[in-house]
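Fig. S4 source data, part A: sequence.
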Amino acid sequence: MKVVNDYINGLGGYSAIGKRHGINRSIVRKWYHAYIAFGIEGLERKKGRTSIYE
């Protein structure tokens, strides 16, 4: 959630936030759009996948 919060709070663009957290900018974008579309549930762990919470 920290990654998404950083983006929402204007602490950088996808690239800057991705670099800060050690992830690809496309992941930041994906998580942000999942949060906008589905809220916190859009970021919850899915069976067989790794959690995206930080």
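Fig. S4 source data, part B ends here. The mean pLDDT is 90.
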